[in-house]
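Colleagues,

Please find the record for the two-part complex below.
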Amino acid sequence: MNRQQYLVQLLRNSVLLISLLPCLALAQALPNGVGFEDIPMAAYGVTIATALMGCIAGTLHRMSTLLEDRKVGDAPDAPPPALRYPKVFISSNILGGLMAGWLSFLTLTHAKTPSLLVQCGVLISAFAGAVAIERLAAKLYPNVKSQ
Amino acid sequence: MPIFLPNRVANMQPERKLFGLAKLYVCLVSLHTAWSLLAGLGEPDHVIVLTLTVLVVALGVMDAVVNDLLPAHFCAPSVFRWKYVIFIALGAGQMSLIYQAATSYRVDFSTLRYALDATAAVGVAVLDLNARWVARNESTAVPRSVA
């Protein structure tokens, strides 16, 4: 790694760390008077299960997009594409979905949203987070071998 | 990105019927559960969730009937691309009912039924993707030459 690449990485990491500061300040203010202690553990477990389902939805959707479709110009007997980094693909989907789902759960519960709509928000956020983080990871680790 | 649907569906026509019936079952169970629990209550969040459920079930039924049960030359490309998200969303709707029961401290053995329905929805989505991937691999496999 040369000096320029090192400086670019240092700048990128610094931007990421500084952008976390507002989230940390908000997280510190979240538990005040919200009543998270009143929510039973089973509800937290169901929320994590719903976020995982959002991760699975994002994973399946990206897998079908990457692996299923033939492109214009492909020969009919062309070999199907395969994932080059399957562990990165799966882990980025799950990590992004769980983070986004959990953040949306905290935000919606803080806003006193009805419980059914909280789960809708968790599912949508988990799906969006899984797809977004996986697309970001694909910039560093291209997914499909034929790319 | 164009989808060459007839080539892939024609390779797995018998299994398509079974998947179509399984998807219809998941859709109808989700609609029955949501309608029996939420219809007539009149609260705004219940109306929103019921409306969303009816919309998603309609899309799921369209996918099951048009893409799986009807002959291969019938297709609904928009629904076909989002079919995995549709069925995961139906499963998450079942989980939201468990969440509502958990926050009200009304979880009992009968609540497990919603978890089984959610598992069925997720299983249909995952197995459908796996079956289409296997069908595509088999359709593009190079036959071995006999010496």
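Chain B has six helices and no strands.

Comments are welcome before we finalize the supplementary table.
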